[in-house]
Amino acid sequence: MSLPRIAARQEWLAARKQLLAKEKELTRRRDALNTERRNLPMVEIEKDYIFDGLDGAVRLIDMFEGRRQLIIFHFMFDPEWEDGCPSCTAGTDELSVGFFEHLHTRDTSYAMVSRAPVAKLERWKAKRGWDIPWYSSFGTDFNYDFGVTIDEPVAPGEYNFRTKAEFEAMGSDFFASDQPFEIPGRSCLLQVDGHVFHTYSQYARVLESTGGSYYFLDLTALGRQEEWEEPKGRSDSVTSGNVPDSDPVTFNNAGTFYGQAVYSGDANNNGATSDWRHHERGRHDDLQLFSPSDAMRSGSPRSPRPCT
User: For residue 22, what are the domain limits?
Assistant: First the structure.
C-alpha cells in the first residue's frame, strides 16, 4: 500500500499552510457558486402529478408537509426490482433524525421518489429502518420529466441537461443500452401561495456536493480508497463483504448502470458502503462517458453503484 511520506513537523506545517490557502480559496469559490445557485430563476410546475403514498394518492404540494421548500431524492428503484439500488441505499443510510430536524427548522422537507410500487418501497424502507417519506411515481411522467428514467420511446433522450446528440458528439454511447434504465438525482422545489416551482436539480458527481461519508473520507490520508484517486495504491485497505465486485448491471432486463461498482457490506446490505470505480477511459467529472457494451447482465440487486 502507498502511504504518505514521513516528514518532520516543520516540513508538514509548511505544506499544510500552503494547502490551507487553497482550501480558503475553494471555500470562497464555493460560496460564490452557492450564490449563483440561489440566483437561478425558477419554473412553475404546471403538470398535476399524482403519486402513490402509504396513505393513498399524493400531489407534489402535499410532499411539502406545510413547509416552504422540498428536497426530493430520485432514488433508483425500477418497478421490476425487488430491492432498492445499493448506492442510493448506502447514501440514505447516512441520513439521521437530526439531519431532518435541521432541515425542518429551516422550513424544508425531504422526500424520496421512485418508480417502483409503494409496497416495494415500504418493504425496503422497513428493512432498512428508515422513517423517510417515500412516494411512487409509477404511471406518471415525473421521472421522465426530471431526467431520472431514460426511456426514449417515452421521452427524448436527455441526461444531466445534455441531449442524446450532445452525448454522441462527445463520443459517448450512453443511450445505446437497453432501456428503460434508472439514474439518481436530487431536485429542489419551492412552494409560493400554493404554486410549486422547480428551482434546481443535480445529477452525476454533483450529487456529492451534499457531502456524506465521502467528504469525511476526503479529509483522510487514504481518501475514498477508490482506484481513480491520486496518489495510487491507497485503495488496498477497502474491506468488502461477500458481494463480489461487478461491472454495470441490468436487473432483470429492467435497467442499466454505467461504470464499475464495488459494494461493501454483507449479503443483507448491512454495513453498506459503495464506491465508484471509474471507466477505463479515465475519470470524468460528470461520469457520463461510459459504454453500455461494458455492461454485465446480472440478477444481483446488490452489485451496482449508480452515477454519483
Answer: 9-39
